[in-house]
Amino acid sequence: MTAEQVVRTVTDPELPMVTLAELGIVREVRQDGDGVTVTITPTYSGCPAMESIRADISAALRTAGFGPVEVRTVLAPAWTTDWISESGRRKLAEAGIAPPGAAPRRGAGPIPLTLTPRPSTLRCPRCGSAQTEAIAAFGATACRELRRCLDCREPFEHMKEI
Amino acid sequence: MAFDDAYGALTDHDDDARWAYGTGFTDPLAGVPSGLPDGVDRADLTAYCLMLGDDALVMSHRLQQWVTRAPELEDELALANIGLDLLGQARLLLTRAGEAEGAGRDEDALAYGRDPGEFRNVRLAERADADFAHLMARLLVFATWRLALFDRLAGSSDQMLAAIAAKGVKELTYHRDYAAQWVVRLGDGTALSHERMAAAVTAVLPLVEELFQPHEVELRLTAAGVAVDPAALRPEFDAVLTQVLAAATIEAGPVRAVAAGTGRGGEHTEALTEILAELQQLARAVPGGSW
Questions:
Q1: Selected residues 64-123 of chain B with any CB under 8 Å from a CB in chain A
Q2: Taking every annotated instance into account, which residue ranges of this chain make up the domain PaaD zinc beta ribbon (chain A) (predicted)?
Q3: Could you say which of 1.10.230.10, 1.10.260.40, 3.30.300.130, 3.40.630.30 is the CATH number of the domain covering A3-73?
Q4: Cβ–Cβ of B167/A111 closer than 8 Å?
Q5: How many CB pairs below 8 Å do chains A and B form together?
Q6: Does domain B40-257+264-284 have CATH number 3.40.50.2300?
Q7: Cβ distance B46 to B40 under 8 Å?
Q8: Distances from the Cα of B58 to the Cαs of A113, B96, B250, B275, B276, in angstroms?
Q9: In B89-125, which positions are buried (b, 16+ CB within 10 angstroms) versus exposed (e)?
């Protein structure tokens, strides 16, 4: 396997059903002989999984016989849920997490305030109903919110658009 | 990765990847290019990064104090997540301050090794919250001000500050919405919730003026294209606050004066001393401890 193929197998520590590559966290894999430089970007500034992610990538590459391995962090451009791949979105939905819609487009002027829940086109990952409501804007991690389906009545998580 | 021992799982690698004080995890900008922009005074850039970093660190600590005290589990999660976002911003900014200073101090040395008079945060960040309404009033003011600031700072000539700000804008947008929705819910709620929310707004408003008073470092760095003049944020801040308070049916009463001085100049209330006593206790008791 190439270094890039190895990195593509590494899963996210908090969302183990998807790979880091599918989440759009892996920005670049550069191979120079046996040496590899991987560039990653955090989802949120305070993401406590960054160290774990770096360690998992290093371990996977070294186990596959690569070295030295360097994992670099970039902050810009800032991560957006638009970078999550189609297969990543499908796997999130299969795991009961409604994937994000398109990230909000920034118009001119100040960022608008949201005082009432945003209209949403997302569907319940269990029954497919479009009738859902927000329970809480922050879930088990900063990237997820809690919602409830008004038809099957089940609560579910939704990855927030950023 | 094995999850039966979460801490063991984090340390189950042959490198220094850890997460907690005293475990050697001090590298949030690993691999990020760290050069300084041309023509920028190192001492000014250090001070500016400390200002923005201390705002986030102190506010984050106040939010963490609410964990196990929030009215509902969902809000517990929200406050913890907002605190975590701000802690992440603080780590990046304090690390940047250490790089700009060039004296070998890292984020831990700056967070745990400075006395209250060396902190540069605005006094709004350190204020103790009498109840949940006070916290929501304070978070609304803090997030509205910081979002307006970061939105402009994303254009800074310092690439690192620009990147930190652009990332923070997305987070702060959620923080501001969360606080604003609570202020409206409580203000436009029952007679009792209205009364307490209005009292909280009245209590927090005296700390607003300080947010828009530029420190000389901010003015010099604004001229150099690095910083944002806080005075320029006032119209946007006022527009948002007016919108939220109107929806919350709260009329802002006359604002009473507070003691002169600014947190940016190192002048603080005793609330900061109390926060730092807790925040720094372990690091002060076991300097450089590792386990």
A1: 74-75, 77-78, 80-82, 84-89, 91-92
A2: 118-160
A3: 3.30.300.130
A4: no
A5: 138
A6: no
A7: no
A8: 25, 17, 28, 8, 9
A9: bbbbbbbbbbbbbeeebbbbbbbbebebeebbbbbbb
Length of chain B: 291
Is this complex's ipTM strictly greater than 0.95? no
- Extents of the domains making up chain A: 3-73, 86-103+116-159
H or E stretch including B179? helix B159-187
The answer, for B176 touching chain A at a CB cutoff of 8 Å, is yes
Distance CA B48, CA B39 (A): 15
Q: Give the sign of the dihedral formed by CA B230, CA B236, CA B239, CA B245.
A: negative
The strand pairing partners of B219, in sequence order, are none
Helix, strand, coil percentages, rounded to 5, for chain A? 20, 25, 55
Domain range annotation of chain B: 40-257+264-284
pLDDT (tens digit per residue) in B13-40: 444 443 445 444 445 565 555 678 778 8
Tokens of B107: 């984020």
pLDDT in tens, B150-204: 999 999 999 999 999 999 999 999 999 999 999 999 999 999 999 999 999 999 9
